[in-house]
Amino acid sequence: MTWIMIKKEAREAWRSRRFLILLIVFLIFGLMNPLMAKLTPEIMKMSFGKQFSVPAPTSLDSWTQFYKNNSQIGIYLLAIIFGGTISGEVNRGTLVNLVTKGLPRRTVIVSKWLVITAEWLLVALVSFLVTWGYTAYYFPDQKSPHLWLAFLPLLLFGCSLTALIVLASTLARNSYEGLFMVIGYTIVLYLLSLFTDFKHYNPLSLINHNLTFLTKAGSLTPYWPALLVTGVLGALALLVANLKFARKQL
Amino acid sequence: MTNLQNNSQFFMENLPILIPLILLEFGLMIAAVIHVLHHPHYRFGNKILWLVIVVVFQIIGPVVYFVFGRGDQA
């Protein structure tokens, strides 16, 4: 049953060109990061004159761009594209047939989350590999040693966020409401991140402190509560989505 | 003159990034333009509006069109 629903979701992602758009945009992000790192000093020179001395860009600048793009645009793009994943089907009535023919409602939620998460993992990985390749080619320095350690927290945050997107689109009446709920969630996290005492607990640290993880060995270890909180929040979001969807009028 | 040389040198140096970048952006734009022309039913707005958005705003335009603009029929 789950497998059938997963296949249906994957086919939808392909035929609606949703996956292709995500892939192209994340590919463009991946290419832009090293380019922006190279361009920034040139732009500074153009605007402040030749004598303005700018340090030569390093691999760190490229990875700064990568994490900035992903945390400021990438995750919202997910929310924009998937914000209506359940509310849209409820509005169109396309789930009625499946559920009345015996598809468990739980399966709908779980397979949606699985497919969205798989799409996110894939495009994030592609963009990471592209940035990695070009950064290694243009900035062959040793300044960013812990590439995977910096990248994995972002992936985990994304998986948790997709669960939240599924929850938001279950609660919402249309895709705009779903999008606003996800934005509201990140705003709450940003407000909480003002309390620096809690930074080791805040899921947002996983996408905002990546440069520290990238440069310093073992700097991810103190953030294990944040990893835990992120995972638990994702699981909770899925659970609540299941409960709410069980009573939803299709 | 030196400025111009610098620019073209910078351009050549970054060709490995620029070529795929330009190809992807144009690919996205052309796909969106074709879709706008072939599917004249939009959730809101009209053909001219969407053509302008898709062509003028690189990356963002096509994404906004595919997510919000296009009608429900395939």
Short recap of the structure:
The complex is a heterodimer of chains A (250) and B (74). Chain A contains eleven helices and no strands.
Class of secondary structure makeup of chain B: mainly alpha
SSE pattern of chain B = HHHH
Which two chains share the most extensive interface? A-B, 20 and 19 residues
The count of helical stretches of chain B stands at 4
Distance between the termini of chain B: 53 Å
Q: Mean of residue pLDDT of chain B?
A: 84
Broad shape of chain B: elongated
User: Low-confidence segments of chain B, ≥5 residues, pLDDT <50?
Assistant: none
Q: DSSP helix count of chain A?
A: 11
Structural write-up:
The complex is a heterodimer of chains A (about 250) and B (about 70). Chain A has helices at about 1-15, 20-50, 60-80, 85-90, 95-100, 105-140, 145-170, 175-190, 205-210, 210-215, 225-245. Chain A is mostly helical and about 250 residues long. Chain A has one domain (about 1-245). In chain A, helix 2 (about 20-50) crosses helix 3 (about 60-80), helix 2 (about 20-50) runs parallel beside helix 6 (about 105-140) and helix 6 packs antiparallel against helix 7. The longest helix of chain A is centred in the middle third of the chain and has 34 residues, at about 105-140. Chain A is elongated and about 70 Å long. The model of chain A has no long low-confidence stretch (mean pLDDT about 90). By secondary structure, chain B is mostly helical. Chain B has one domain. Chain B is built from 4 helices and no strands. In chain B, helix 2 runs parallel beside helix 4 and helix 3 packs antiparallel against helix 4. The interface between A and B is medium-sized, with 20 and 19 residues.
